[in-house]
Amino acid sequence: MLLNTYEPWKFAFSQENEDIKENSFGIIGVPFDSTTSYHSGSRLGPIVVREASFGFEKYNTIFNKDLTTAFYDFGDVNVVPGNCEKTCNIVEDTVKELLDLEIKPIIIGGEHSASIGAVKALTEKYEKLTVIHLDAHRDLAFKFVGEKYSHATVMRRVHELGADLVQIGIRSASKDEEEFVKSTYNIQTFKSRDVKKHMDAVEYYLVNIEGPIYISIDMDVFDPAIAPSVGNPTPNGLYVSHLETILETLCHKNVVGLDVVETASDRLGDNTAVVAAKIIYDFLTLID
Ligand SMILES: [Mn+2]
């Protein structure tokens, strides 16, 4: 048997789309990886993450909690292979449609550029958005190989939209990116080493954020031992327990959207897809 689920095209435990409740969550996939510069394949992320989502119990014994949050899986957006800007616009329009229905977006990538459209839609709805960006990389280049729309420029575009940034798990950046961070007032950094040594400081900072929060998780924030199938694997990353603590802290806040991107698994049951599915599943369990 190739698949371990009866309906692999929808996230496990997602509800029927006919009876949509307000203040719920809506999953959309963005199967796009045209600007990927190293390990390609994240266009398969939405498929493999959904398939992996069927490996877990509805009850979470770590959190002592049942998954009761209302959420729906609306399938994948129609991407434009080879055109990142057009694909970002399609993601933006789709997220706007969800927001009009009072549904908060959960995006499964696909490359990280998917965040641009989502944050654009959210910054039009919310006056002051804070983006919690979990990643090995800052993604703050103004252009990458001459392109403004790229997986490597995504947080620069997000910052231009007026969002405050909190970058967590960082362990790779260019000198230009570091100088850009120093020149701004609204980018907070917790490098990978800070998270491991001073998680209490991370929690304290997150607890005190005011206003709506969007969470963007690049799967390369994890150590490559846990999540090797990503676009740019980078050693000395975080563990699932770090993410559990961060999500437990953030779920008491006003979280208005989430993306989990850069899963480039090329086979069913790959551990990167399993970890990505578990993160989404943990978030949905905690956020209720
Ligand atoms: Mn990254």
List keywords for this structure.
288 residues; 9 helices; binds manganese (II) ion
In short:
This protein has helices spanning 45-52, 84-100, 114-125, 154-160, 175-183, 192-197, 199-207, 240-250, 271-287; strands at residues 24-30, 59-60, 65-66, 71-76, 103-109, 130-134, 164-170, 187-191, 213-218, 255-261. With 288 residues, it is an alpha/beta fold.
How far apart the termini lie comes to 34 Å
Q: Radius of gyration, Cα only, in angstroms?
A: 17 Å
**What's the story with the biggest beta sheet?**
8 strands, parallel
- CATH overall fold name: Arginase, Chain A
Tell me the β content: 15-25%
Structural class: alpha/beta
**Helical residue percent?**
25-40%
CATH class: Alpha Beta
Q: Could you explain how this protein is built, in words?
A:
This protein has helices at residues 45-52, 84-100, 114-125, 154-160, 175-183, 192-197, 199-207, 240-250, 271-287, and strands spanning 24-30, 59-60, 65-66, 71-76, 103-109, 130-134, 164-170, 187-191, 213-218, 255-261. With 288 residues, it is α/β, with parallel strands linked by helices. The chain has one domain (24-287): Arginase, Chain A. The protein has an eight-stranded parallel β-sheet, with helices on both faces. The protein has a two-stranded antiparallel sheet with strand order 2-3. The longest helix is centred in the first third of the chain and has 17 residues, at 84-100. The protein starts with 23 loop residues before the first strand and ends with a helix. Bound molecules: manganese (II) ion (MN). Manganese (II) ion binds next to loops.
